Amino acid sequence: MKPSRQRSSSERPARTSTSSLRCRPACSPAGPTAAWEKFTQKVIGLVAAKRTRGVVFMAWGTPAAKRVLKVDAKRHLVLKSVHPSPLSASKGFFTCGHFKQANEWLANDPNDR
């Protein structure tokens, strides 16, 4: 029996994004920021739809959690927690264990996501 070769995490494609891409501080919330939010939502939807499985979505904060509501949790791992800002990080972010959960989920795939 030939042992399966699992790719290390450095060999797996990884992408990060934030649900709230920003422009200059003088921008109004209804201006370019709103356009970035639509763009980000579209990217999340496309990634969730096109990748058949194996994507980890980490949604930190209420706005981010709303962005991943339609992601199929049977095909992808969806993790939600409070935002890691100084005001709320101690309310659950420090203990949520998202990176450990993501690593374990990715490592336990029999088809090597």
From TrEMBL:
Annotated region described as Disordered, given as residue ranges: 1-32
One Pfam family linked to the record: UDG
Keyword DNA damage on entry: yes
Keywords: DNA damage, DNA repair, Hydrolase
InterPro entries: UDG_fam1, Uracil-DNA_glycosylase-like, Uracil-DNA_glycosylase-like_sf
Ranges where the Uracil-DNA glycosylase-like domain occurs: 18-106
Identification of the protein by name: Uracil-DNA glycosylase-like protein
